[in-house]
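TASK: fixed-backbone design
INPUT:
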């Protein structure tokens, strides 16, 4: 039986959070008849991302109610807004009941937390937002990706590719995962070299984080909880 990997699309998300894992899983589906990939949203209308690129779901939530794997991308202010979207949260709760894996990239884990799915679990998100996981009852962990039961949460943005390759190895074996990695030529050599986490620009990102929270949560049920002066 073919298993569906559903990547969730909502307005304003970070494009690479979605497209990175989506590309990995699409190559897997291309070489293995055991998997198919869907991009799911509330409807099939094109939505904006945090780039000039718009994206359109291939399926609605109703058309893919019980995916084997569901992946939630993150972003800035729109992700905080999505964390108060009851239709999205209800879909994730429903999907999580039967899914083999519930995954997130970057701040997508905050949406899982808002859905009540990370209570008592280890989880990760973008380093600038990691502290907020505890507000949802999760245990923040600073790793490239974190597994706790069926839940798999990745760090920020590009970490979603690493997480997706790790998941492919779990699903189809190391040989297939290595083939997928060759397929997308994923062999990162960043021009500035590996990140030195002791030099992370906390002050720079603090203002961006605070502004995104104010914009995304204004007028929502989570505002009183998170928007503290």
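OUTPUT:
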């Amino acid at each position: 039986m073919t298993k569906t990997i559903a990547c969730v699309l909502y307005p304003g998300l970070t494009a690479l959070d979605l497209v990175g894992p989506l590309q990995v899983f699409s190559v897997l589906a291309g070489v293995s008849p055991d998997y198919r990939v869907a991009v799911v949203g509330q409807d099939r209308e094109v939505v904006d991302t945090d780039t000039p690129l718009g994206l359109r779901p291939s399926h609605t939530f109703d058309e893919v109610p019980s995916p084997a794997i569901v992946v939630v991308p993150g972003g800035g202010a729109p992700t905080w807004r999505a964390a108060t979207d009851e239709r999205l949260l209800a879909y994730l709760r429903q999907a999580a009941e039967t899914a083999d894996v519930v995954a997130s990239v970057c701040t997508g884990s905050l949406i899982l937390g808002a859905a009540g799915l990370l209570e008592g679990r280890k989880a990760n998100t973008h380093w600038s937002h990691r502290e907020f996981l505890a507000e949802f009852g999760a245990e923040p962990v600073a790793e490239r990706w974190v597994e706790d039961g069926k839940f798999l949460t990745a760090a920020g943005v590009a970490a979603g590719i690493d997480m997706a390759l790790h998941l492919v190895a779990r699903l189809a074996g190391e040989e297939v995962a290595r083939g997928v990695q060759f397929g997308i030529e994923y062999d990162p050599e960043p021009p500035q070299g590996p990140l030195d986490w002791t030099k992370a620009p906390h002050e720079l990102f603090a203002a961006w984080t605070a502004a995104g929270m104010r914009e995304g949560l204004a007028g929502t049920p989570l505002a009183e909880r998170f928007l503290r002066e």
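COMMENT: The chain is about 40% helix and 15% strand.
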